[in-house]
Amino acid sequence: MNTNSTFEVGSLLSSMSARGVEKQLSQLPGVSAVQVNYVAGSASVTFDVDTIGADRIRAAIEECGYHCRGEATPRHLCAPHEDAGHAHAHAHAHDHGHAAPGVSPKASPKPPAAHVHDMDHGGMDAMAHEMGHGAGMDAKGMARDMRNRFWICLAFTVPIFLYAPMGMSFIKLAPPFGLDLNVWLFALASGAVIYPAWPFFVAAGRALRNGVLNMAVLVVLSVGTGYLFSLGATFFFKGAQFYEAVSVLLVFILLGHWLEMRARAGASEAIRALMELAPPKATVLRNGVETTVATSEVLAGDIVLIRPGDKIPVDGEVLEGGSQVDESMLTGESMPVKKTVGDTVIGATINKSGSFRYRATKVGADTALAQIVKLVQQAQNSKAPSQLLADRASQWLVLVAFLIGLATFGVWYFVLGQPVLLALTLTITVFVIACPDALGLATPMAVMVGTGLGAMNGILFKNASALEDATKLDVVIFDKTGTLTLGQPDVVDLAVAQGTTQDDLLQIAGSVEKLSEHPLALAILKRAGNLPLEPVEGFNNVDGMGTEAMVRGQRTLLGNRKLMDVNNVDLNGLSADSRNLQGQGRTVVHVAHGGRLIGLIAIADAVRPTSAAAVAALRAKGVQVAMLTGDNRATAERIARDLQVDIVLADVLPGDKAAKVKELQAQGKKVGMVGDGINDAPALTQADVGFAIGAGTDVAMESADVVLMKSDPLDVVGAIELSRATLHKMHQNLWWAVGYNVVAFPLAAGVFYPFTISPEVAAIAMSGSSALVAINALMLKRTRLTGIRRGQAIPGAADRTARAAPAAV
């Protein structure tokens, strides 16, 4: 049986490092698919659990030379029976990529993590290891550590610059302790290079062991070549030295990676926001005693105690008591939901009032929150078609840069007979400027920010392909009931006979229907509101026709026309109103009291408050809107006119929905299908992009490409706008990355000599291009999109807009 799991992978320095892990894991028996995201520091692996286990995959990652803490489910959500210590048993110091040279690494198993603060360890640990930080360090700690590396390098670089020929032309300084100037420069350069650049040396070694050329290899080639050549010129032969160039070069490389790291940490905010929703502790009843335990230690079947203001730790079923629960952070529904005995409660939601006890039914990785986190992680690790192309280009770019660098040295030194200083400088410049960081970051950064922003608003893309495909939709089909409409009866019109008021009609009808559980009866009771209801005697259901009872001492009938005809009730007074309402597709309830027709109650499914706005927004974006319904064509066309829908698909049987999608696709259209995911699975699967609307916490819908947790059609607009904005950022980043390399290569190789650039300037250009791509992706958070909030975790209690009363259909 195949399953998909996400593993944390530390020490990934570039997209090419991720490629090395993918290459090795793909060769494992039982592994059918691997996608590694170096921005998130995680790998999504699809494997056959009967052939290979998670432990073997984790071991394979570590055999590649990368730190792996195991599956990336937040530790406070991990299955309680899992040996957390075992999951961390392979966390060795040498995996961190920053052990001091010559120091033997020691095994350092992590203790079980059991509270909410450990939830950040997913992408954060990966980035921490990647840039030489310790495990468990948060984003601020990582930025502080990288800042320290930068400042250490800069502290050694400033005196190197002062003692270099350019500095000495302004101020004459003598080396301390009577040292030779070149030896003093060597000592300073060693301080500027060895510790600050150590993560790059470690990452380059890993890459070469895995048969991959990556950005770290180019950094080591450029910095190492300049440093070693200068060392040789200092102690073994006469020649020019590059101490100044190497140290300044590394300063700018470190600065660029510092900025990039901060941007990457920012891209992971959505996952962290989701993880922070759950409480660290839970109060359970064990052996009759209240006990506070870590959320990860709650077992299925435990009795959990909840008091006012508590966060619910895991999913379960209410056994005793009741309350109002705020589920907005997960489902987006703004109003608290009443919970009584037998109702389901969801982990990470907030108890507003009252106390209750419930039995834990889903714990660990089975909770709704864990499933949402897993879905977002898988989407962020997946690769859009444009990213696959960029990854292939990055692989070739490093090899091309290496060959161009060698060719540059050969041409300038051997063919043109130029000094070795010039030839080596140009070669180093080529190695530096060609680092494919910008190309590797272009797509995954945008995907991470886009999917994260969607998750923060209850829009869950299952993969990057869905994110990209949603931009190409020509038509979106809405299954009418439950998507464009509320899917529940509502009183939409009243017609009263002479001598009767609307309140009288509703009071009499409500008095009878209070004893009925029929959906139409509930709609009438809802409309009757707070009107005082009369005592009722002799209530009786009349099969297929309606109900009858005694109200105010007189016989009262509520039902269809047949019930009126059987009881010889004269309908002439309201016959025109009845025909008009039925022509509009309404269900008409006739009300007779004392043998006389006193009024008509028209009932219909109500249009959602945001349906018209959603249809208008889609049409404004050039997307046609189709409505699919089992209603007759006359009724369907009237609804379509009200909502200004372009295409009406009426009289459609449930089994024919997929065929209607296929018909539109046969016309060359890219089709999106919006359904409730219950009886729409074939149509959702057939569509180019399937949207499951109103999923709530049921996010694991196999048939849908995009899961909309709320029952709001505007979220379809938000999903399409978000996908377009994300793709726009991808294209911007890719064009910048490609354009940068097209211009940079010939300039660095001296093709336009005497117009050349130094390695230091190349470092600024390389670091700047990567930082620009990362920052540009983060700017997606500032884009204004329909229905998309910024800076807010999964939708809170604030409603999107002030909404009018439901319109009727």
Automatic annotation (TrEMBL):
The UniProt entry, under PROSITE patterns, shows: ATPASE_E1_E2, HMA_2
Task: List, for all copies, the residue spans of the domain called HMA.
Answer: 3-69
TM region positions: 150-171, 183-204, 216-236, 242-259, 396-415, 421-442, 734-755, 761-780
GO biological process, alphabetically ordered: copper ion export; copper ion homeostasis
Q: Mention any one GO cellular component term assigned to this protein in its UniProt record.
A: plasma membrane
Please give one Pfam family short name: E1-E2_ATPase
Query: What's the main place this protein lives?
Result: membrane
Where, subcellularly, is it found? Cell membrane
Q: Which Gene Ontology molecular function entries are recorded, alphabetically?
A: ATP binding; ATP hydrolysis activity; copper ion binding; P-type divalent copper transporter activity
UniProt membrane topology term: Multi-pass membrane protein
List every stretch annotated Disordered: 85-117
Q: Which UniProt keywords apply?
A: ATP-binding, Cell membrane, Membrane, Metal-binding, Nucleotide-binding, Translocase, Transmembrane, Transmembrane helix
Q: Where is the composition biased (Basic and acidic residues)?
A: 85-98
InterPro entries documented for this protein: ATPase_P-typ_cyto_dom_N, ATPase_P-typ_P_site, ATPase_P-typ_TM_dom_sf, ATPase_P-typ_transduc_dom_A_sf, ATPase_P-type_domA, HAD-like_sf, HAD_sf, HMA_dom
**Family assignment from sequence similarity:** Belongs to the cation transport ATPase (P-type) (TC 3.A.3) family. Type IB subfamily.
Provide the protein name: Cu2+-exporting ATPase
